[in-house]
UniProtKB/TrEMBL annotation:
Similarity annotation: Belongs to the TrpR family.
Gene Ontology terms: cellular component: cytoplasm
GO MF: DNA-binding transcription factor activity; sequence-specific DNA binding
Keywords: Cytoplasm, DNA-binding, Repressor, Transcription, Transcription regulation
Organism, scientific name: Frischella perrara
Quaternary context: Homodimer.
Described function: This protein is an aporepressor. When complexed with L-tryptophan it binds the operator region of the trp operon and prevents the initiation of transcription.
Record protein name field: Trp operon repressor homolog
Entry superkingdom: Bacteria
Length: 102
């Protein structure tokens, strides 16, 4: 994968989101299985950041392999501090607010 191709792809997706076509572009580009995998990956990141369950419990809860959870954990270790803060604010703080509003 070339960096220029990746950047063009990210720019394309960002433009779609900017024009409120996020659902359309993701449905166009991702199969149902890929969309489910993306949902699972977000759940993994959320649970790892939240810290409420350990990796083995997460594996059981999501019905996935431990290697998938480990990959998510390893990827999370590589993010910048700023991005990690954003992830925490977006995934954890937002959910606490949503839970209180229900």
């Amino acid at each position: 994968m070339e960096k220029d191709d990746w950047q063009q792809t990210v720019n394309f997706i960002q433009q779609a989101f900017n024009h409120n076509y996020q659902f359309d572009v993701l449905k166009l580009l991702l199969t149902p299985d890929e969309r489910n995998a993306l949902i699972t990956r977000v759940k993994i990141v959320h649970a790892l950041l939240d810290g409420s369950i350990n990796q083995r419990q997460l594996k059981e809860h999501l019905g996935i392999g431990i290697a998938t959870v480990t990959r998510g954990s390893n990827s999370l270790k590589e993010v910048s501090a700023d991005f990690r803060t954003w992830l925490e604010q977006t995934l954890i703080d937002k959910n606490h607010v949503d839970e209180h509003n229900q």
